[in-house]
Write a sequence for this structure.
């Protein structure tokens, strides 16, 4: 299921990615933060709300978004840990990063949980946002 | 009739310990929680491969993990490590941590301004026998710099 999820991601097929998850699947992109004057927008919530928006936004900003999966490790409790690189070339604003045609590729760690029905019910991801911003030429710590 | 009988030697005395990968990793993390770098390193193989992406450590080794642990323990003497989850998937063990503390020395180029750090991290360990042979560390350096009042990635040391 998780390998198929990344295949759908590589095809930019957000609908299929979403359909591989339960209706109430949890979503947490840990490094995702957008700081405003009075509140902080975080990448926490549900796949069908926060997750879908973030994936669609990423694909829109990086039309050639790709992923390279290095390893998938799983146990019989439904936990799946994936090491991969995600990257692409920026064509539209992403967060506070203005498009300069920069290209990034950054190691990511994904932690999934798959339920007894074979659907993903949790997605969590870690990466170094500073590494991405440097590659895109965005040097402000927003 | 046997003239000699082989004495049964416990596995521990033979140096063979049935330690699960999760137990090995927890030994590392528990020592880290106590800010005991040497105890943490006691379960790390000398030939360990280390990748600490936020610190730009690629294809690093034992000395790199020693430096990383020493630096954070020194810079944050009140380091508070919360182990949020430990997931064992065969020989790979993944730990989700929250690292908290108050800065007391320069860290990762950031000048000490006595700011508070609270950063979520993921550490992916590969275990062989009772030793850690691979470590991959993930956190967002942007989050860390933001907490430590760094404004620009190209002017980290400037306040």
């Amino acid at each position: 299921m998780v390998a198929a999820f990344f295949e759908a991601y590589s095809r930019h097929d957000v609908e299929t990615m979403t359909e591989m998850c339960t209706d109430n699947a949890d979503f947490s992109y840990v490094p995702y933060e957008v700081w405003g004057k009075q509140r902080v927008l975080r990448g926490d919530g549900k796949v069908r709300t926060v997750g879908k928006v973030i994936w669609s936004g990423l694909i829109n900003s990086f039309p050639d978004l790709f992923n390279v999966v290095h390893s998938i490790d799983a146990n019989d409790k439904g936990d799946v840990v994936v090491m991969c690189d995600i990257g692409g070339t920026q064509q539209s604003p992403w967060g506070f990063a203005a498009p300069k045609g920069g290209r990034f590729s950054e190691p990511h760690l994904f932690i999934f949980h798959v339920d007894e029905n074979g659907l993903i019910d949790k997605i969590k991801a870690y990466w170094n946002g500073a590494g991405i911003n440097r590659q895109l030429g965005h040097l402000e710590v927003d | 009739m046997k003239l000699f009988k082989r004495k049964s030697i416990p596995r521990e005395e033979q140096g063979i310990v049935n330690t699960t990968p999760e137990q090995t990793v927890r030994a590392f993390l528990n020592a880290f929680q106590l800010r005991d770098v040497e105890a943490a390193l006691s379960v790390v193989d000398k030939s360990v491969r280390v990748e600490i992406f936020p610190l730009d450590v690629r294809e690093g080794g034992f000395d790199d993990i020693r430096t990383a642990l020493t630096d954070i323990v020194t810079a944050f003497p009140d380091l508070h490590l919360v182990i949020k989850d430990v997931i064992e998937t065969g020989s790979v063990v993944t730990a989700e941590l929250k690292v908290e503390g108050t800065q007391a020395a320069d860290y990762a180029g950031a000048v000490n301004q006595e700011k508070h750090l609270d950063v979520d991290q993921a550490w992916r360990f590969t275990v062989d026998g009772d030793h850690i042979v691979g470590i991959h560390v993930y956190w967002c350096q942007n989050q860390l710099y933001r907490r430590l009042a760094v404004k620009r990635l190209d002017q980290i040391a400037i306040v």
